[in-house]
Amino acid sequence: MSEHGKEIIQRGLWFEEYEEGARYLHRPGRTVTETDDVVFTTLTMNTQPLHLDAHWSASQPGFDGKRLVNSMWTISTVVGLSVAQLTLGTIVANLGFKEVSFPKPMFHGDTLYAETVCLSKRLSKSRPGQGIVELEHIGRNQHGDIVCKAVRTTLVQCDPAQVKEQQ
Predict the structure, then answer these.
(1) Residues 158, 63: Cα–Cα separation, whole Å
(2) Angle at 125 between CA 119 and CA 161, to 5 degrees
(3) Of 114, 124, 138, 167, which shows the fewest CB atoms inside 10 Å?
């Protein structure tokens, strides 16, 4: 207790707090800038001209001559937008990603909104006090179009107070 009353530390969800089938909406969204895309693309050594070369991209069919936002920025940001609400300080590890898709492109100036559906959860058989949670992350642009989907498996801490009671 502080002199001002109860102290509350922001955190993600304990294993027990996840609800199968629940859809968690992560707000605010994130508007991607040209700088975001170019910095991310060059930091990751991705030399794809569709991200870096405006002149070259202008001559390519399919996207009205616009450069595409790096899809790895998109998936990274979708997961990042979920952290404060779901896994901040409660995740043990990412166990893997599967079913990753990018149905529509992102462009500079688009705003990315993220949501996550809890697909399943189970207690770990080999790690007492931890559970495995399968999450489907979905990214949508400002028009509501799905621009990214990925299923992620995570290892999450159980609520320490409940673990202590079970011992």
Answers:
(1) 46
(2) 80
(3) 167
Reduce the secondary structure of 26-89 to three states and give it as a string: EEEEEECCHHHHHHHHHHCCCCCHHHHCHHHHHCCCCCCCCCECCHHHHHHHHHHHHHHHHCCC
Q: Is the pTM of this model over 0.85?
A: yes
| Digit-coded pLDDT (tens) for 26-40 | 999 999 999 999 999
**Cα separation, 44 vs 143, whole angstroms:** 28
Q: Which residues lie below 8 Å from residue 22, measured CB to CB, with a gap of 6+? A: 117, 118
Q: Output the CATH code of domain 15-166.
A: 3.10.129.10
* Domain locations along the chain: 15-166
Residue 166's H or E segment, with its range, is helix 160-166
d(CA 14, CA 3): 28
pLDDT digits (tens, 9 = 90+) for 24-75: 999 999 999 999 999 999 999 999 999 999 999 999 988 899 999 999 999 9
Q: What percent of the chain has pLDDT over 90?
A: 86
Residue pair 64/108 in contact by the 8 Å Cβ criterion = no
